[in-house]
Design brief:
With about 210 residues, the chain is mainly α. The chain has a domain of about 130 residues: Ferritin, core subunit, four-helix bundle (Ferritin, Up-down Bundle). About 60% of the residues lie in helices and about 0% in strands. It is elongated and about 45 Å long.
Length: about 210
């Protein structure tokens, strides 16, 4: 299996945190791994297959634009969660945000693979949602905003999946959709108001 090529740094250095790097070497340094890849045909042969695979998909440029838009959004989510995980001392919350970060990095790799297999060059930009979310100082409010961003990704994938004819890409994006739905549910559960605790006291009629 051929390794992912290195990506250029799309964003300027962040004053408050080190710039996010999503190159394979940087991700391996974090203990993160991309999913296994499937080799594709040579560009010459594969170009002939594209018309058949995407004959019902509409404009190929539109498909690539959608995949790149998702990649930029996932890169933003990875950076948001990377910084947010460092802002809490709550072990459960930190574990949740770190899990989401790892998922976001994984889906960056999946989208890069999908775009390169078409073949095309993946975007190196980070979505503007990153700056919008990091402008929210309260962590709970930021996570609520992040969850709305995850919901946008879910809707985008639901609209895109019927247009994908490649079985491997379709399977990867389906897994990405399910992962986002699960993470939305986890954040909702974490942010759900706790039921009021009823103090334990003497039962009615019992002696004080």
């Amino acid at each position: 299996m051929r390794p992912l090529p290195p990506m250029s740094n799309a964003s300027s250095a962040d004053d408050a945190a080190a710039p996010f790097a999503d190159t394979p070497a940087a991700l391996r340094a974090q203990g993160l791994r991309f999913p296994d890849r499937v080799e594709v045909s040579s560009p010459v042969c594969y170009a002939d297959e594209l018309d058949a695979v995407y004959r019902d998909a509409g404009d190929r440029d539109e498909l690539l634009a959608a995949l790149n838009e998702l990649l930029e959004a996932e890169r933003a989510g990875a950076r948001i969660t990377l910084r947010s995980a460092a802002e809490t001392d709550d072990p459960a919350l930190q574990r949740l945000v770190t899990d989401i970060h790892r998922d976001e990095v994984r889906w960056c790799g999946v989208l890069i693979d999908a775009i390169q297999s078409l073949p095309a060059t993946p975007s190196t930009r980070t979505g503007a949602f990153y700056e919008r979310a990091m402008a929210v100082p309260d962590l709970d409010a930021r996570l609520a905003l992040l969850n709305r961003g995850q919901g946008w990704v879910v809707r985008k994938l639901q609209a895109l999946l019927p247009r994908i004819g490649d079985a491997h890409i379709h399977g990867e994006l389906t897994a990405m959709l399910m992962s986002h739905q699960q993470n939305i549910a986890r954040v909702n559960a974490q942010q759900a108001p706790q039921a009021p605790q009823i103090p334990c006291g003497p039962q009615e009629g019992a002696s004080p």
